[in-house]
Amino acid sequence: MEKRLAGNTNTGLLKIIALIFMLTDHLGKVLWPAIPEMRMLGRIAFPIYCWCVVVGITYTKCPLKYALRILFVGLLSQPLYMKALHHTWTEPNIFLTLLLGVLALWGMKEKKYLSHILAPAIALILAGVFKCDYGWRGVMLMLLLYGARQQKSAIAAVMVAFCLFWGSGGAVKNFFFIPFPFLDWNYVGPILQPFFRLQSLALMALPFILIPMPLKVNMPKWMGYALYPLHLLLIIGLEFII
Fold first, then answer.
1. pTM over 0.90
2. Which residue among 17, 43, 47, 108 has the highest number of C-beta atoms inside a 10 angstrom radius?
3. 239 pairs with which residues across the strands?
4. From CA 37, how far away is CA 207, in angstroms rounded?
């Protein structure tokens, strides 16, 4: 019997929150690149989606249907993704990363014919081969969160360690004109600096993953998937207008 997950299982609300931060990130990339804070806030989205996959694969009654839904939305969204964010067919959208994560976790869950070893290994390799969004690191985050899913302390440890490992991009010295002078202090600065790189800011997703939210959102299943292509259509429309 699967133990209760330690984190927030309100995936309806989590998907809305993740979408808001993803939209902020994409608008910052396409329309307002001079506002780096939009990209910073956008780091919150992906870990939340990864946690939603962990919740989904844990409680779904049919992993195959779950995987097929993700595949369908990913294929449907790819032309919109290319148009909205100026990518090509060789740059798949985030749903391929999520699909590989689902397949890897399905194998770990079933534990048949060494699937708990082979499925994650193959998924990590394919993430690199197909140049998935967030690459093999994105799939690895889902694997680690799945392994830590039953203890909040373990989830927190995974997120801190992974975000520090993942931390790349330029140093974040200020946020909306609020400077971070402590990053230049002796002794303290070198310890804190790894937490203030662009990708390290994905750690800001941790409270959303860990803390249960009283507002329950019972979103129709199709709506949870439709939000992704709809946000791409919104970006295309805004690009046309602006």
1. yes
2. 47
3. none
4. 19
